[in-house]
Amino acid sequence: MARKTNTRKRRVKKNIESGIAHIRSTFNNTIVTITDTQGNAIGWSSAGALGFKGSKKSTPFAAQMAAETAAKSATENGMKTLEVTVKGPGAGREAAIRSLQAAGLEVTAIVDVTPVPHNGCRPPKRRRV
């Protein structure tokens, strides 16, 4: 019986001018996903994926690095303009947006899509430090 040869599908570079950057900033991590206008993912990165561990994941610097990595993959696919949607209360929100602008992408709009409960779940108890 003949051996199967592994043929990997080659990544095709897309030529997409504009897209949406989804920044999910929680208290523990920051995830940046860049999609086209239909919502198909082009590139993504997170503080945890870059090797930050524990409380270092929630820092603005980690969010900045995650946004830079995601922006690099977006510019490789020809992206020039971005609309930014920000979700969550984390520390890395502003740092990630600034990093996307510094990477050479033109930010056309910034929209906050943080879900607000109509008095849903009971929040965690306050910390007494």
Strand-helix topology:
Elements: E1 18-25, E2 30-36, E3 41-46, H1 60-76, E4 81-87, H2 93-102, E5 106-112
Helix pairs in contact: 1-2
Give the N-to-C terminal Cα separation. Answer: 68 Å
Q: Write the CATH fold name.
A: Nucleotidyltransferase, domain 5
**Residue share in helix:** 10-25%
> Which shape, going by the Cα principal axes?
globular
Low-confidence stretches: none
Mean pLDDT over the full residue set: 91
CATH architecture level-2 label: 2-Layer Sandwich
CATH class: Alpha Beta
> How many β strands by DSSP?
5
> What series of H and E elements makes up the topology?
EEEHEHE
Would you mind describing this structure in some detail?
With 129 residues, the chain is α/β, with parallel strands linked by helices. The chain has one domain (18-112): Ribosomal protein S11/S14 (Nucleotidyltransferase, domain 5, 2-Layer Sandwich). It is built from 2 helices and 5 strands; from the N terminus they run E-E-E-H-E-H-E. A 5-stranded mixed β-sheet has the order 3-2-1-4-5, with helices on one face. Helix 1 (60-76) packs parallel to helix 2.
Features of this protein?
five-stranded mixed beta sheet; Ribosomal_uS11_CS; Small ribosomal subunit protein uS11; 2 helices; Nucleotidyltransferase, domain 5; structural constituent of ribosome; single chain
Task: Describe the structure concisely.
Belongs to the universal ribosomal protein uS11 family. The protein has 129 residues and is α/β, with parallel strands linked by helices.
